[in-house]
Amino acid sequence: MDDQEETIENCRLHVESLLARKGHSGLQETSYPSRSLNFLKRLQGTPQRFDNVPNYTHDASSQTALPKEATIKLKTIIAGAGLGGLATAIALRRRGHEVTVFEKATELGEVGAGIQVPPNSRRLLMRWGLGPYLEGKAVEPEAIHLRRWQDGKVISLTKLVPDFEEKFGAPYYVVHRANLQLAMYELALSLGVCVRVNAGVRCYNAEGSGVVLENGEVHHADLIVAADGIRSEARRVVLEERDQPPQQCGYAAYRAMVDVDLMRADPELSWLLDVPGQNLW
Ligand SMILES: Cc1cc2nc3c(=O)[nH]c(=O)nc-3n(C[C@H](O)[C@H](O)[C@H](O)COP(=O)(O)OP(=O)(O)OC[C@H]3O[C@@H](n4cnc5c(N)ncnc54)[C@H](O)[C@@H]3O)c2cc1C
């Protein structure tokens, strides 16, 4: 039994034990009005493939070795093409699942600022084949300096180069969120993921395992992944009254992007650009 089969088997046993606790005797009698776990029933018979799953094609020059294809191919809908949604799309597609991502925004834009990609995430992203798509867009800071805000004196230093690559097998990267999102988007497309922008999910049909888009289109899938961010609608559908929406905590965080040419021209700031680095005051 490989990792995936073991995961599915554990999932099946878990569902069966939940059903048993509720007095049901098998997967045929789901205790909730959902078809989302139908694929588990298929596992009880001979493994079979879903119809209409497109051929898995990829550009060998830009992808790293693909993992073993999934035994059962799922038709998957992902709501949200943020970092979470696109990462999930890539991971699922690499196993051969059919993936459609619905994104509310009219385009994938310039939202956000620097995203730190530590070695553990970077190793994963590179294994997925993101390297060529990030070419020239990521910065490898030499160190993280924590500085006293009154006078800029260094009070803590974390050396990143070469320490992180030596210790953790990959460097520490910083990349603009928009570049990371675009790179993931391009990789997802190259793998055969369908990404539709201006296609917000209006509501989720828990009974029919489907979604209704803002334009009225209805789509069904074996698996629906909600990656619709901090104000997630889907979370409310799953958690119902237990959902805890974001709370105002009374703090505010501001951030800004500054043109590097302006920094270079300012004697008080130009030294920050001498070597790539992270400075926190
Ligand atoms: C200031 C700051 C700094 C951060 N720094 C880092 C860092 O250094 N490293 C790091 O790893 N993480 C960092 N994070 C966290 C990281 O940015 C988030 O965890 C991550 O972006 C969340 O991704 P997501 O896909 O879950 O949500 P989002 O990026 O919010 O994406 C959600 C997407 O869903 C779409 N959407 C919403 N509703 C719908 C709908 N109904 N239908 C369809 N689409 C919908 C939205 O338009 C959006 O595109 C930082 C976060 C902040 C705020």
Automatic annotation (TrEMBL):
Pfam families: FAD_binding_3
InterPro entries documented for this protein: FAD-bd, FAD-dep_Monooxygenase_BioMet, FAD/NAD-bd_sf
Database matches in SUPFAM superfamilies: FAD/NAD(P)-binding domain (SSF51905)
FAD-binding domain span: 74-243
Record-stated family: Belongs to the paxM FAD-dependent monooxygenase family.
Lineage summary: Eukaryota, Fungi, Dikarya, Ascomycota, Pezizomycotina
Keyword check for Oxidoreductase: yes
Protein name: FAD-binding domain-containing protein
Transport recorded as keyword: no
Alphabetized UniProt keyword annotations: FAD, Flavoprotein, Monooxygenase, Oxidoreductase
Domain of life according to the entry: Eukaryota
